[in-house]
Amino acid sequence: MYAILDIETTGGQFNEEGITEIAIYKFDGLEVVDQFISLVNPEKPIQPFVVKLTGINNAMLRSAPKFYEVAKRIIEITEGCIVVAHNASFDYRILRTEFSRLGYDYIKPTLCTVELAQKLIPGQPSYSLGKLVRSLGIPVTDRHRASGDALATVKLFKMILSKDVEKTIVISLIKAEIKKGLSPKLLDIAESMPSRTGIYYIHNEKGDLIYIGKSKNIKKRINQHFTGTSGKSKKIQREVFAVTYEETGSELIALLKESEEIKINKPIYNRSQRKTIFQYALYTEKTAEGYLALKVLKADGRKKEITSFVTLQEGRNFLFRITAEYQLCQKINGLYDTNNGCFQLKIKECHGACMGQESPELYNERVEECLAKMQFDSNNMVVIDRGRTVEERSAVLIENGVYKGYCFFDLNYQVSNVEILKNIIIPMQHNRDTKTIIQGYLRRHKVIRIVKF
Questions:
Q1: Distance from C-alpha of 67 to C-alpha of 184, rounded to nearest angstrom
Q2: What is the pLDDT of residues 55-76, one digit of tens each?
Q3: Which pTM value belongs to this model?
Q4: H or E stretch including 117?
Q5: Integer Cα distance of 210 and 262 in angstroms
């Protein structure tokens, strides 16, 4: 759990500032679960430049509670949380100073979104909160007021969590829980999971990732792990200490994140997925008569593949489907049943190329049309799909046939051009697996829309 806060002060000499306003949002990694916002009477005058910046003046604070009157609520809402702030060293110092005046030693682990953004969103012209959120397409209201700045920091931190593919932030949170000596039961862990689409991360007692998975129903999938009788399930049941998750809304993004993060983090029980899981691929060959034949073969990196598959049967099923859809000859494409001879029905559907009833030129035209629809090697497009909430959409960016990454955007802040999209995109690796995942998903699922540019 995170306590994301922002503090406005009177200004003045170092360690003599007083708090004029404080906003704290308790954030569970997906949404705000509690909040506290209050003006505070600092019992000292506000510097004129601060009044001009924030709009908070001395008259507004005369009837506001003093810090000691809100101190208990601050302790309650931040209990068990990591404190997160933009320039955390300042806000945390101010908070500790106020508590020390009351004789209370306020100590919390902290995260700074300036430092995290510099690491995970490099190349920004400025890391001040206002300029950074504008460049990332994050809507912000009440700038320089505690509630507006804290809420903008919540949205920024949510984006940073998505960009943290090595899961260093989440692992630090789990390690903080371990220090408390908590040992949740499997039933409690499963009950805390959402019945939504996303990625889940299984941690051991050291906080290390031992398994990464994706599901359209995270709770159901975790229950399957915890009740399974396979060797892997039993090992996970013995070693699990905590499960964290990240909702994606879009199954496509869940598939892409799972593939990328397994390769980066190499969890011990994802051995088979650390390398490519697509062992078979679709290739073209020319027959002696000049016909383009489609063949599903063992994947060979030396050849240019069209798309790939996890199993041979998956590839053959796909080939049966596209030969029927594009009226391609099953005999030419290696699907001819030698026991029963040439199927008359299929001959009529495919124009009888294997019997010389259709020329190689005409037949190959339909093969090329089929291949063009399957590939995006030179395409520039954005795949728009569901977001994590009804107010949100997801976007997958493909530029010159290369998968660049994904992002989420607010429906109230429409992405008007690709350059804005590039600012908020979470960069991901383009490889054989990601290409196949996107191709396969677009073949089998409807998305909200595809925007070509």
A1: 36
A2: 888 888 888 899 999 999 999 9
A3: 0.68
A4: helix 113-120
A5: 10
